[in-house]
Amino acid sequence: MAEPVRVRRLTDQEGQRLQQIVRRGSTPQAGALIAVISMVVYGIQISSRQADLTLLAMTGPLLLLGVAFGTIGGPLADMSLAKVPHKDAGSASGLFNTAVHLGIAFGTALTALVFFSATNGSSDSAVNREAFTGVLWWVAGAFAVMWALLLFLPTHANGQAD
């Protein structure tokens, strides 16, 4: 019989350590690494299983990718806007959201460019599968670059900037 799960409060020392980890910004970096791993696993699945790939088999890497996006997206705004003065917070937030949406648009356009340049308009499923796998490697590379860039973001501000 399995042991019951016991829940306890964090000690002050454990709480401070957890705050240090979160303030250091390791959560988004972990999310970027999870995204890289999920893209690699997804690419390997598509390359190796080809026609035998089921919806259930694809669910695992895509769920990992969703977790990765959640761990990146949540703290990213806080980390990016940590040192913005209160009087400029509205403008900075708008600029941040605009940059995010431009990044999504450029990423989608570049991914489509890589995919369609590899297929040359072919409707052959093998060509499309190969092109899709190629796109996944590009996306995994972009996530790896994003992970490296996340290391340069400021940590959480201890207090609100003036």
For the structure shown, list the relevant keywords.
about 160 residues, mainly alpha, 5 helices
Could you explain how this protein is built, in words?
Helices cover 73% and strands 0% of the residues. The mean pLDDT is 78. It is flat, with a radius of gyration of 20 Å. It has helices at residues 12-23, 26-49, 55-80, 89-119, 125-150. By secondary structure, it is an all-alpha fold. α2 (26-49) runs antiparallel to α3 and α4 (89-119) packs antiparallel against α5 (125-150). The chain contains five helices and no strands. The chain starts with 11 loop residues before the first helix and ends in a 12-residue tail after the last helix.
| Shape descriptor | flat
Q: Share of helix among residues?
A: over 70%
**How many E-type strands?**
0
Residue runs with pLDDT of under 50 for 5 or more positions:
none
Q: Summarize the biggest pleated sheet.
A: none
Task: Give the averaged pLDDT, no decimals.
Answer: 78
SSE sequence, one letter per element = HHHHH
Which structural class matches the secondary elements? mainly alpha
* Strand percent estimate: under 5%
Radius of gyration: 20 Å
Distance between the termini: 57 Å
The helix count comes to 5
